[in-house]
Amino acid sequence: HQSKMDFFCKLGYGKQDICRVLENLGQEALEDDVLKELIRMGSKPQAPESQAQPSQLKLVARGSCSTMPGLKWLGEDESDSSSSLRPIVIDGSNVAMSHGNKEVFSCWGIQLAVDWFRERGHTYIKVFVPLWRKEPPRQDSPIADQHILEELEKQSVLVYTPSRKVKGKRVVCYDDRYIVKVAYERDGVIVSNDHYRDLQNENPEWKWFIEQRLLMYSFVSNRFMPPDDPLGRHGPTLSNFLSKKPVLPEKKWQPCPYGKKCTYGNKCKFYHPERQHQAQLSVADELRAKTKVPSALGKEEERCRCSP
């Protein structure tokens, strides 16, 4: 009797209705018969208290942009997901040697490049430098401002590519492969004056990516200066090149060199400020329109005279 009471209570039926049915049908009645009798009596199950309270978790469709505020993807920066700017991957050795005139590994050049992208609002910036650059400088490989590397490493901006010594010889991993791979996976921009031709021949996907996402630069009086047209005169601007969603520029009309003396009318491809609120007709069309108006008026007058 108690087991049947618990069973139907879990279904949501009231104890009084269950006791009444069990008294009518007897203690040995089957569960199906009890359920039929409860339905016949008009007893309705009620939702349990645990189900009555609405769940705080919400289902989100797969691929939806809306996410819970407390949830994050592992390994992702919070600001990088919402930023409209592309990730930046800097070839540290190329930038430092370029700033040091190919004679000194100038860490100050790396700092200038990082600061330039930070001022633009980029949140994901990574600089790759070989690990052996942490060693004390030698005469054949001088390093200037080496403390900057430590500061950038503490800020999680600088990444050292692995290297080790085997029997007194240094074994260095290819840092260019790290740079291209991370930029390709992040769909970012590579900052370097190197063309990575060996990696272009190695992977056709990398070849297209390097051709379209390589940002070259120059140093002018300790000023980091990338070009305004990274892909040439007919390519995107620098702001569109560095953003995930490029903005189309507004079409600028060139004023007509003939001004008011222009006789092309609406066929003129240049801009006429005096014709903003006028129907732009050619001279021939305007003459035809003027000749049609008096002829039409004369026909109406003749019709009025002939009509009784």
From TrEMBL:
Listed GO CC annotations: cytoplasmic ribonucleoprotein granule; nucleus
Which Pfam families did the record assign? Answer: RNase_Zc3h12a, UBA_6
Supply the InterPro entries for this chain. Rege-1_UBA-like, RNase_Zc3h12_NYN, ZC3H12/N4BP1_RNase_Reg, Znf_CCCH
This protein's record includes keyword Cell wall biogenesis/degradation: no
Zinc fingers, C3H1-type class: 250-275
Keywords for this protein: Endonuclease, Hydrolase, Magnesium, Metal-binding, Nuclease, Zinc, Zinc-finger
Zinc-finger among the record's keywords? yes
Q: Which family does it belong to?
A: Belongs to the ZC3H12 family.
Stored PANTHER family: N4BP1-RELATED (PTHR12876), RIBONUCLEASE ZC3H12D-RELATED (PTHR12876:SF11)
The protein depicted here goes by the name ZC12D ribonuclease
Q: Which organism is it from?
A: Pycnonotus jocosus
Supply the gene name: Zc3h12d
